[in-house]
């Protein structure tokens, strides 16, 4: 079973604003509300691709209730720990540029944190656990690392999609998959990455540190994937970018869905790219049909190293 963990979920409130005036009264149009947070996005895409998963994390207040209800309506299984504080609302402004304002997240009680730790303890070696997104303030900076250590004795397949800071703490741990974008990869090694060749160089170092599958996304410039002495380089399909929020999460979901379908790594990677791009080309996360259509268009170059 795939478990996604969103410790800090959100309602993503998407609003179009023309000529945004900082400090002035702006009137938005075309509002939408989606259950958000990185792990939740992974679960939503998995569900659309008919791969079961359970979304874990903390949810509370009227916002948490909205997230849970919407996910259930979409057929996403959840097992959130309930808290009394409200889950955050993240504002995503669409104008000439995308501006995001992400809230700090709900307060957690020690009891809720203990309940979550007990829940994670039930996972077995047959499970995947996707650790994605920021941490609420009540959790220590190294909470993901603590979870990884907690799970060391049972080889749960750990997938990490967080900031470069969180990833840095995790280098050397036996992770199944990490998907930083090229900026995050650069931050990890304190360099600016401007080419695929450079991305491959640093991705190899990440792979050698014990991460079985390393995907580096580079927005519209393609993506690279390293696994088992093979480098896969993908071109992304062309299209009109509408909303990149959740594109990276969709990439992770597409890859896991490909593996769950029994695809070879190259095709799991193609499904990852198709899922990321299909989300970039639509307002909400991608639908299955769009993903399957793009899947046919993604081409990958394969070389050994
Ligand atoms: N301009 C684009 N054209 C086509 N596909 C794109 C574009 N931008 C992003 N994508 C798709 O989305 C995937 C993830 O994009 P990106 O590298 O921006 O990840 P990220 O920074 O983790 O994303 P997020 O915005 O979710 O944080 C890419 O691999 C690609 O498939
Ligand atoms: O504040 P975090 O946890 O880093 O990111 C949260 C978030 O921006 O990530 C998702 C897109 O990847 C959105 O659904 C959500 O609003």
UniProtKB/TrEMBL annotation:
User: Kind of enzyme, top EC level?
Assistant: transferase
- The Carbohydrate kinase PfkB domain sits at 11-283
Q: What cellular-component terms does GO give this entry?
A: cytosol
Which reactions does this protein catalyse?
D-tagatofuranose 6-phosphate + ATP = D-tagatofuranose 1,6-bisphosphate + ADP + H(+); beta-D-fructose 1-phosphate + ATP = beta-D-fructose 1,6-bisphosphate + ADP + H(+)
User: Its pathway?
Assistant: Carbohydrate metabolism; D-tagatose 6-phosphate degradation; D-glyceraldehyde 3-phosphate and glycerone phosphate from D-tagatose 6-phosphate: step 1/2
Keyword annotations from UniProtKB, A to Z: ATP-binding, Kinase, Lactose metabolism, Nucleotide-binding, Transferase
Which InterPro entries does the entry mention? 1-PFruKinase, Carboh/pur_kinase_PfkB_CS, PfkB_dom, Ribokinase-like, Tagatose/fructose_Pkinase
**GO function terms (MF aspect):** 1-phosphofructokinase activity; ATP binding; tagatose-6-phosphate kinase activity
| E.C. designation(s) | 2.7.1.144
Which GO terms fall under biological process for this protein? carbohydrate catabolic process; D-tagatose 6-phosphate catabolic process; lactose metabolic process; small molecule metabolic process
Q: Which CDD domains match?
A: FruK_PfkB_like
Q: Name one Pfam family in it.
A: PfkB
Q: Which family does it belong to?
A: Belongs to the carbohydrate kinase pfkB family. Belongs to the carbohydrate kinase PfkB family. LacC subfamily.
Role this protein plays: Catalyzes the ATP-dependent phosphorylation of fructose-l-phosphate to fructose-l,6-bisphosphate.
What PANTHER family has UniProt attached to this entry? Answer: 1-PHOSPHOFRUCTOKINASE, 1-PHOSPHOFRUCTOKINASE-RELATED
Instruction: Please identify the protein, giving its name as recorded.
Output: Tagatose-6-phosphate kinase
Originating gene:
fruB
């Amino acid at each position: 079973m795939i478990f996604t963990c969103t410790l800090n979920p959100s309602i993503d409130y998407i609003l179009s604003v023309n000529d945004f005036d900082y400090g002035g009264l702006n009137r938005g149009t075309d509002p939408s509300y989606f259950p958000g947070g990185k792990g939740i996005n992974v679960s939503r895409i998995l569900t659309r691709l008919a791969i079961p998963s359970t979304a874990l994390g903390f949810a509370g207040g009227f916002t948490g209730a909205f997230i849970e209800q919407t996910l259930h309506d979409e057929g996403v299984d959840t097992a959130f720990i309930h808290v009394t504080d409200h889950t955050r609302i993240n504002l995503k402004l669409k104008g000439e540029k995308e501006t995001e304002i992400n809230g700090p997240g709900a307060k957690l009680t020690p009891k809720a944190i203990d309940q979550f730790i007990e829940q994670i303890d039930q996972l077995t070696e047959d499970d995947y656990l996707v650790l994605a997104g920021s941490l609420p303030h009540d959790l220590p900076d190294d909470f993901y690392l603590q979870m990884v250590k907690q799970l060391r004795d049972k080889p749960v397949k750990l997938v990490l999609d967080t900031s470069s800071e969180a990833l840095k703490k995790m280098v050397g741990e036996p992770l199944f998959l990490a998907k930083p974008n090229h900026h995050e990869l650069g931050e990890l090694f304190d360099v600016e990455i401007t080419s695929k060749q450079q991305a491959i160089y640093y991705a190899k170092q990440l792979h050698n540190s014990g991460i079985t599958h390393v995907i580096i996304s580079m927005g519209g410039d393609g993506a690279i994937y390293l696994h088992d002495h093979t480098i896969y380089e993908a071109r992304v399909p062309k299209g009109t970018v509408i909303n990149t929020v959740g594109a990276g999460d969709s990439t992770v979901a597409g890859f896991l869905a490909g593996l769950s379908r029994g695809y070879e790594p190259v095709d799991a990677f193609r499904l990852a790219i198709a899922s990321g791009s299909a989300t970039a080309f639509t307002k909400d996360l991608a639908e299955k049909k769009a993903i399957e259509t793009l899947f046919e268009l993604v081409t990958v170059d394969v070389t050994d190293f």
